[in-house]
Amino acid sequence: MATSMRGLTQFIADIRGARVRELEEKRINKEMANIRKKFKDGNLDGYQKKKYVAKIIFTYILGYKVDVGHMEAVNLISSSKYSEKQIGYLAMTLLMHENSDFLRLVVNSIRKDLDSNNEVDNCLALHAIANVGGSEMAEALAEDVHRLLISPTSQSFVKKKAALTLLRLYRKHPEVIPAAEWALRIVSLMDEPDLGVVVCVTSLVMALAQDNLDAYAVSYTKSVDRLHRLVIGHEFAATYAYYKVPSPWLQVKLLRLLQYYPPSDDPAIRSVLYKVLETIMNNCAEPSRNVQHNNAQHAVLFEAISLAIHLDTHSPLVGIAAVLLARFISSKETNVRYLGLDTMAHLAARAESLEPIKKHQTTIILSLRDKDISVRRRALDLLYSMCDVDNSEVVVGELLRYLKVADYALREEMVLKIAILTEKYATSYKWYVDTILQLISAAGDHVGDEVWYRVVQIVTNTEDLQEYAAKVVFEHLKAPSAHESLVKVGGYVLGEYGHLIANEPGYSPLEQFHLLHSKSQFCLAATRSLLLTTYIKWVNVFPEIKPQLLNIFDRYRHVLDAELQQRACEYLTLASRPEDDDFLPSVCEEMPPFPPRVSALLGRLDRKHGDTEDKRTWVHGGKEANAERNGLGQNADSRQTSAPDASDNIMDSLAGLDLSGSKSQPQANASQGVPRPTVGPNIDRWFEKLCHGSEGVLYEDVQIQVGVKSRYQGHMGQVAIYLGNKVPTALTSFTATIFVPDPEALSVTFAKIPPSTIDSRSQLQQLLNIECKKFFSEPPVLTLSFMAGSHQAVSLKLPIVVTKFFEHVKLGQAEFFERWKLIGGPPREAQSVFPITLDSSGQLDLERHAKAVTGNRLNILDGIDPNPNNLVAGGVLHTSVEGKVGCLLRLEPNSEAKLCRLTCRSTSENVAEEVLKLVQKPLLVKSSN
C-alpha cells in the first residue's frame, strides 16, 4: 500500500530517520498541520484522502494522539475502490471506539457492503464489525451477518468470517443474538463440505449451546456423524490433515460439544460414538517419533477420554483410558503430564471407584513437587478429587507438608481444599481439630476468615469436642509466634470453654490469661476487640483473675481506636457491678449451638475458580459434588455421600450442620424444546389414515415426500420412513430428529444416524425402533430440516398411537359379557354418541365400521351381539413396564336416528378413553377417505 503512495513512503522514511524524539515530534506536528489544512480546504479526491488518512493511522500506531481524519475515514468506507475502502475500514477499527458517535454514520455503509456481491467488501465489513462490535452496531447488523452466514451463495471464506463475527458479537452482547431462533439454521452448517467452515461454525455452536442447550440439542447428532466421517470414514481434504491427524482442532471441538449434553439414549448414536472413541484410543496407543504428530494426537485423545468418562465411567473405554493416563502422568513431557493429571482429575470426580487411581497415589503426590507450577496445580486438583475416607489422612498429611514450601500462588487454594477435605472425611474429632489448627499455624496469612469461622461453628456444636479443642488451642498458642487467625480461634474457644480445663495443671486461669494476652500486642484492632470479649467472659467464670482483667479494661479506655475504647468502657462498667447482681452471668452465658447452615468454604473455592469462557462440564471434588451440580447436560439424582459408612463420618455428628457445602439442584431437562407440528388439511388426513393403516404417505410437497411403512409385534415395533427428494438438486444439511413427549412411556430411536444429504430424485429409508413401555396419548414428532435453495423445516406427527401395540383376542359370548360386566362402568368405561353417514342406498356402511375397528388392531368378535348391525371387538395392549391391559369395545349404530353409540371398557381408564378417540375418528370422516 505504501509503495503506491510516495508521500506516505517519504513520511515513514522521515520518521524512521529521526535521530531523537524531538525531531520525530517536529516532523509529525508539521505533517498533522498540513493534513488539517488540506482537510479544511476540502476538494480532495479519493487518492489524497486515502494518503492523508494512512499517515494519520501510522501516527496513531506510533502512540501519538490524533484528533483529525475521522470524517474522512467515514467517507472512504463508502468508496467503490478497494484500496480506499480498506484504508477507511482500517482507520475506523483503530481510531474509533465502540461508543464513538462516528460509528452511527457508517452503519448503512457497512450494511451495504454486507449485502454486496463482492466477497472482499463482505470481508472488510465483517472484520470491522468483529473488531469494533459496539452494542448499537451489534443490534443493527447482527441479522445481516447471520444472513450472510447462512446464504447459499456466500463463499466459504466469507462464511468462516461471518461465523466468527457472530461469535464475537455473542460474547460481547449476547442479548442481541436470538440464539434459539437461529439454532436449526446455524447447526445445519455443520454439514458443510468445507471443514474450515465447519470449524468456525462449531466454535459458534459451542458458545451458543452452553446457554441454549435445548435449542441446540440437534447438534449432538451432527457432531457424532461428523466425527464418524472424520475418524472412521476419513472424509476430509488433504489440506486438513495435520501430521496425518484429520483436523484435530475440529475433533477437539466436537468432542467438547458432546460433553455439554447428557449421554444419548439412542443405541445407534451410542454405538457410533463408542466406535469413534475406541478408534481414537487405538490410534494413540503407540507414541510417534514426530513431536507435532504426538501433540495433535494427544489433544484429540485427552478430549476423547473426557467424553468417555462423561458417557459412562463403567465402560471398557474408561478402563483403557485409566491405563493410558497412568502412563501419561509419568511422562517426561510437561504438557503430557499436565493433561494426564487434569484428565485423571476428571475421572476421579466422576468415577464410582477410586481404586484404579489410588494405585498411582505416590506418583501423584510426587507431582506436587514438579518443576512446572501448572503441573503442581493439576496434581493438587487431582488429590482433592481422589480423596475419600480411606486415604484422607495420607492425602491431607501430604498437603500439609507441601504447604510449607508451596508457591504463594497456590497456598490460598490449598488451605481451602485442606480445610474442606479435613471436615468432609474426618472420622474423629481429635484428628479434625489437630489438622485444622496445624493448618492455621502453618498457612499464616493465607487462611481466610471462612476457615476459622468453620472451626468455631463445629466446636460450638459438638460438646464432646470442646474440652479437647481448648487444650489443643492452648498448646498451639505456646509457640513463639502465633498467627492472628490462631489467636482469634484461641480467644473464642478459651473464652467459651477455658473453664473446662482450668482445674488441670498448666491450664490455670492465670496461665490462660497471660498466654492469650501476650499475643494481643501483635494483633489488629478487630482481634483485640474479640479478646476483650474473652476477658469479660473470664470475669464471670474466673473471679480470681478479675483484678488483672479490670486493669486491662481500664488501660483500653484511653486507646485511640473508637471501637476498642467504647468496648473497654462498656465491659469495665459491666465488670464493676456488685457481685450479687446476676446481670453479668446472664450477659456472659455460653454461646448456643449455631443453626444448620451451608459451609462457606466450598462457596469460597468456587468463587476462586470462577467461570471460564468454555464452561467446564464437571467440578473438582469427587462424584458427590458432581452429582449435585446443576451443570451442562448432567443428570443429577438425589444427594449422595462419598463415605462408605455414614456413621463413621464426622459430618453426620455435628448437630445438623451441612458441611458438604452445596445444595442439590434440580437438573435442567436437556431434551429439545417441543416442536410445533406442520398443519394442513392433507397432512391431517394422511396422519389419520396412517393411524389405522400400516403404510402410506405421511407428507408431500414440491420438494420432498415422506412415506411410512410399519409393523408391530407385542410391545415392540419398527417403522420405515421413506424420504424422497423430488427436485433435480441434492437436499443438503439434512437433519432428522425425533421428539417424544413422554420418553418414560414410549421409546423411539433411529436404527442408524440419518445421512446429511439426499441425492437428486432419489429415495432413502430410515428405520425407527419403537418400544411401548406403558400407556401414552401423544404421538412422537419427526422434525426434518434441509437446504433446498433456502433452509426448509417441517415437523410431522408420526402415526405411532397406543392401538398399534394391541394384539387380537378371541372370546366367546359368555366370556365376553362376563368380562364386560366385571370391568363395570366409569371410570374404566368411555362412551360417545355421534352422528353417522349412511351409504348411497341409505343403508349402514358396516364394512367401513369394521375397517375402523380392525384398523386399530382390535379383533371383531362375530356372533357375540344378537343385533347383526352391532360390532363387538376385543384386544390386549402390550407394554414392557405395566404388562398387558385388556380392552373391550361395542359399536351400536342406529340407521333411523343416524346416530352411533361407541362404548369402550378397559382395565385402564386411560386406555378406554384413548381407544374410544382413535376408533371414533375414522367413523367421523367422509367415506371417500
Automatic annotation (TrEMBL):
Residues 688-799 form the Clathrin adaptor alpha/beta/gamma-adaptin appendage Ig-like subdomain domain. It comes from the Eukaryota. Residues 632-644, 661-672 have a biased composition (Polar residues). One of its GO terms (molecular function) is clathrin adaptor activity. The keyword tRNA-binding does not apply. InterPro entries: Adaptor_Complx_Large_Subunit, AP2_complex_asu, ARM-like, ARM-type_fold, Clathrin/coatomer_adapt-like_N, Clathrin_a-adaptin_app_sub_C, Clathrin_a/b/g-adaptin_app_Ig, Clathrin_app_Ig-like_sf. A 1,2-diacyl-sn-glycero-3-phospho-(1D-myo-inositol-3,4,5-trisphosphate) binds at residues 6-7, 38, 47, 51-55. Keywords: Coated pit, Endocytosis, Membrane, Protein transport, Transport. It is found in: Membrane, Coated pit. GO terms for biological process: clathrin-dependent endocytosis; intracellular protein transport. Gene3D superfamilies: 2.60.40.1230, Leucine-rich Repeat Variant, TATA-Binding Protein. Residues 612-627 have a biased composition (Basic and acidic residues). Residues 612-679 are annotated as: Disordered. GO terms for cellular component: AP-2 adaptor complex. Belongs to the adaptor complexes large subunit family. This is AP-2 complex subunit alpha. It comes from Coprinopsis marcescibilis (Agaric fungus).
